[in-house]
Design a protein that fits this description.
This protein is an alpha+beta fold. The chain has 12 helices and 9 strands. The strands form 2 sheets. It has a 5-stranded mixed beta sheet with strand order 7-6-5-8-9. Strands 1-4-3-2 form a 4-stranded antiparallel beta sheet, with helices on one face. The radius of gyration is 24 Å and the shape is elongated. Bound molecules: magnesium ion (MG). Magnesium ion binds next to strand 5.
């Protein structure tokens, strides 16, 4: 019995899937887009565009499609585009998602979290109430995050304020900080789940993919394969939503820790209430105290200094 392989483009893959829709199988080998199981033939279509036909009708079934086979293109980019999974397909894969919190908050660190949810756990993680963390209250975040952390492997990186301010003074833009932190978090998680390999790594987009990798050029290790930077990625894959909830939970804990150290609750965001809180820190502990709990280059620092001066 022979195996037959054809190379298909997106259009042909769609046509194949539609043609065999009554015999689609739930069981997918790694890297497969869909699989067909019939008594006379088993067909597996891979994301690479390869389609494998096995069984006694393999030759006959493969023959139906051979004339329509895509010509292999030498241009890697075009090939990637042709075989890139759709958002819906991404959502069904075993994937790592990553997201960050704290970039717009004057007080507190930047926290990046990544979570891995494999196909077998997609429903279980979704059932925990995982959705866009921005729609959840702090109380809900603190309730759901521990349940996610028990169910899904994850990694977290915290850039504390002292280090943030050093990076910033060295001239590093915040987007580069985010890129470095995402990559370092992904390295940790990819190592932690090995030998399992994610079929996709989905970053909630803060930069286009090309710019993201440009910022990483000096890094020792770069997680590059199967990385997608997608806007609103928490609605693409539950792993991204899970990561954003973990990131927010860790951020909340860090804010509580800093608040205890400072002696009163530090507000989130970067509004007028934040200026007042910063002014109070300057009055009670001196300007230097801000370096350990705030992002100094924000305009809030100057406003707080003005407020503190007026109150003297
Ligand atoms: Mg985000």
């Amino acid at each position: 019995m022979s195996n037959y392989v054809i190379q298909a483009d997106r259009q042909l893959l769609d046509a194949l899937r539609a043609h065999y829709k009554d015999a689609l199988s739930d069981r997918l080998p790694a890297g497969a887009l869909f699989a067909v199981k019939r008594p006379d033939v088993a067909i597996t279509a891979y994301r690479s565009g390869k389609v494998l036909f096995q069984g006694k009708a393999a030759e006959q079934e493969a023959g139906k499609w051979m004339g329509k086979t895509a010509k292999p293109s030498g241009k890697q980019k075009e090939r990637e585009a042709a075989f890139a999974p759709t958002k819906h397909e991404l959502g069904t894969l075993s994937a790592i998602g990553s997201d960050e919190v704290g970039t717009g908050d004057y007080f507190g660190p930047i926290v990046v979290a990544a979570a891995y949810v494999d196909r077998a756990h997609l429903d279980r993680v979704a059932a925990l109430g995982v959705k866009d963390s921005k729609q959840l209250t702090d109380e809900a975040i603190k309730r759901i995050a521990p349940a996610i952390m028990e169910t899904a492997p994850y990694a977290v990186t915290v850039l504390d304020n002292a280090e943030y301010n050093r990076w910033q003074r060295s001239g590093m833009p915040q987007t580069k900080m985010k890129a470095l932190l995402h990559n370092r978090t992904l390295v940790k998680l990819v190592d932690a789940i090995a030998p399992a390999e994610p079929e996709a790594i989905i970053i909630d987009e803060f930069l286009k993919r090309d710019s993201y990798f440009r910022y990483l050029s000096d890094e020792d290790r770069i997680i590059r394969e199967r990385v997608y930077c997608l806007p609103k990625a928490e609605s693409v894959h539950v792993a991204v939503a899970a990561a954003s909830i973990i990131a927010r939970c860790v951020f909340l804990e860090e804010m509580e820790r800093l608040s205890r150290a400072i002696g009163f609750p530090l507000p989130k965001g970067a509004g007028a209430i934040v200026d007042e809180a910063a002014a109070r820190i300057i009055r009670e502990r001196g300007e230097e105290a801000l370096a350990g709990c705030a992002k100094l280059h924000f305009a809030n620092t100057k406003k707080a200094l003005d407020i503190a001066k007026r109150q003297k």
